[in-house]
Each structure stands twice: as C-alpha cells, then as structure tokens.
Amino acid sequence: MDIAVVGAGIAGVLIAREVARRDPGSSVVVVERDAVATGASRRSAGLHFPRGTTRRVRRMTSYSQDYYRALRKQMPRLPIYDRDMYLVAGLESEAHLCEVHLPEAGLAAVDPLALRVAGSPVVPPAGSGVWSAAGCQYADVPALTRALARELRPDTGFLEGVRVTAVVPGTSAVTLRTGTGDTLTAGQVVLAPGPWLRDPAWHGLVEPLGARAKKIVALHIEQAPEPDAPVVVFHDEDAFLLPLPHAGHWLFSYTCREWDVDPDELRAGVLPRDLAEAREVLGRYAPELAARCVSGRVFCDAYSSTKEPQIRPLDPEGRVVFAGAANGSGYRLAPAVAAETADLLGLLGGPANGRSTL
What is the pLDDT of residues 171-207, one digit of tens each? Predict the structure, then answer.
C-alpha cells in the first residue's frame, strides 16, 4: 500500500480523506485498534470556536472553520451545529481576547446580566465583562467521524479491531506488525494515536517529541437545552458550558491539571476530586448549576509543549509521520492537521498553488 494511517479518530479519518482527495489513485488503509471513533473522539465535546493562542493555531483555526463550512455544504446532513457564543472574562483581558480570536469573530461587549443557562443565571464576578462572538459551532464527533469514514469506503481500506504491535521504518518502506499476526508494508505511515503516546509499538519513535497525555473531565447537567441555547466560555478559567441538544443535556468542561495519564487505565469514571474541582470553577459563575453537576465523562488527550499541534517526521527518511498533540482541540484543528500532514507527505493538490494555505 502507499500510505497507512494508524488511528481512526477524527484526525486519522480526515488525514485519510485528505490523502485520497489529493491523490485519488493512492492506496490508503486506516488501522484502528478498536472501532472508528471509539477513542478520544468518542468523548470529544466537539466545540469549535474562532480562537487560537498562537499565530499558527489561529491560521489552523481559520482553515478548519472554512473546511467545515464547505463540508457542510457538500454533506448537509452531517451532525455539525451552529451556536451563539458568549465569553466571560476579566475586563483587563479584553485586549487579549481581541488578540487570540479571529477578526471574523466580531467580539462585542454585551449586558453581563443577560446570561442564563439551563434556567439559571450566569453571574460574572466583579470586574468581569461579557462579549458575544460569531463563528462557533459544535459537532457530534463520533457520528461525524463515522459518516466521513463511511464516505471513504470502499476506496480507502479500514482495519478495525486490529492493533499495531510494531512500527519498523526502513529505507524504502515501513513495516507494521499487527496483533492479528499479519504484517503490512506501506510506503509511508501516519501515526495519529490521540493520547496513546506510550504504546510500545511507537513509544520510542514518539518520545522525543515531548508530548504528554493530560486528563480531561467534563461534567453533565441533566437538563435539555433550549434549541437556541448559547455556548458560554469562561476565558480566564479555560472552561466552557456547552449545550448538547442532540444528547439532551449540558456539558461543563474545565481544565484538569492531572498529567501523564494512561488512556487504558482511565476506567474509574468521575472521581470525587473531579466533581469538587469542576464545581469550584463553575460555582464562581453559576452556583445553581454547579450543584447540579453529578456525573459526566472522563478521558484524556495529547498535549504538546508549544501549545500547537505536532506534525513531524519520526525517522530520517520521513516515512513515519506523527500527527496529533492538538492540546484538547482535536476536532477544531483536525482539518488543518490533515492538510499539514498531507503537505509533509509530499502530496500535491492543496487549495492554493497546489499546496495547503497553512
């Protein structure tokens, strides 16, 4: 085969899609240890907002925003939904808000007393303000990933329930050994493992990148959101409230500081300390909602030291490429990650002058 993609989350599937778009005659196989969209993508909040903490991430955000807009026109039944968005932040943060958000977000100050979520008021602390922003959307990421994988079949091969046990780069090809006892040979391999950074099959290749897996906790508020309910982002806390009408509840995500976790060991669910930390953050803005957070979801994601995704060759010949460590923004940046990965693989056919505009 020409290219093997290891990992069938949103990033892996979009990478395969980009490769197939740029080189329709190539042979592409996606290898997944479980099933499509059963890793970090299954737990993803799927929130896209027009923000980036660095210039590169803002470029990637803009690219991904345009990509999803075009994708929705092409496939209007995809589970991607527009949302109004409000930002809550200290008044001294206004200049920073304008810096990190895309110009098309159109930040505008609004009445801080107007916010209500799930029937309860959101009250910014003294010295804080509220801004509206355009360009926000969210997706049912597992359903979206499965829909995109379905579109790729049968021209793109999928091996589900097949674990890669060894990645062996060579001068002319890469050998993948699998748990089924089979051996695959590909001209190039893309590793899109999400938080499985320490998997023995590729740990030695990935370790020099310095990427780390961090725990992610999101609590549920068991109340059906109104159809037009907005997203509320607590900028200074790096937290947000997200209405999920398709799931019938709200989600509150906050920044958990637990590092170097193993995704295969996160089976205990929401712990008492998770509840306490999340309630403490949300309680500063909406104590009534904080008291109603009693369940949720726990997993992890891969983070880089630069706060930017890592798309890097891992061997001298550039036949093995790592694509990931999107810092909890895998859905938001996946189209741009796919474009940069295809560029690194040397594939032509990007949006402008035969290359990606990133």
Answer: 999 999 999 999 999 999 999 999 999 999 999 999 9
Nearest to 243 by CA among 235, 234, 253: 253
Distance in angstroms (rounded) separating the CA atoms of residues 73 and 77: 9
Span 84-95, mean pLDDT?
95
Q: Evaluate whether 219 touches 289 at the Cβ level (below 8 Å).
A: no
Domain 82-135+212-303, CATH class in plain words: alpha beta
CATH 3.50.50.60 segments of the chain: 1-79+140-210+307-358
> Global pTM?
0.95
Residues of the chain within CATH 3.30.9.10 domain(s) are 82-135+212-303
35 class by beta-carbon count within 10 Å (0-12 exposed, 13-18 middle, 19+ buried): middle
H-type alpha helices, 75-93: none
Rg of the Cα trace of the chain? Answer: 20
315: Cβ contacts below 8 Å, ≥ 6 apart: 169, 205
Cα distance between residue 145 and residue 63, in whole Å: 19
Single out the residue of 339, 282, 341, 336 nearest to residue 312, CA to CA. Answer: 341
Q: What are phi and psi of 301, to 5 degrees?
A: -150, 170
Following CA atoms 68, 70, 73, 78 in sequence, which dihedral angle do they give, to the nearest 10 degrees?
-20
Q: How far is CA 19 from CA 185, 332, 357, in A?
A: 17, 19, 16
- Report the candidate in 280, 325, 278 with the shortest Cα–Cα distance to residue 297: 278
- Cα separation, 199 vs 62, in Å, equals 32
- CA dist 73 and 94 (Å) reads 34
Q: What is the CATH number of domain 1-79+140-210+307-358?
A: 3.50.50.60
In this predicted model, what pLDDT tens digit does every residue of 14-55 receive, in sequence order? Answer: 999 999 999 999 999 999 999 999 999 999 999 999 999 999
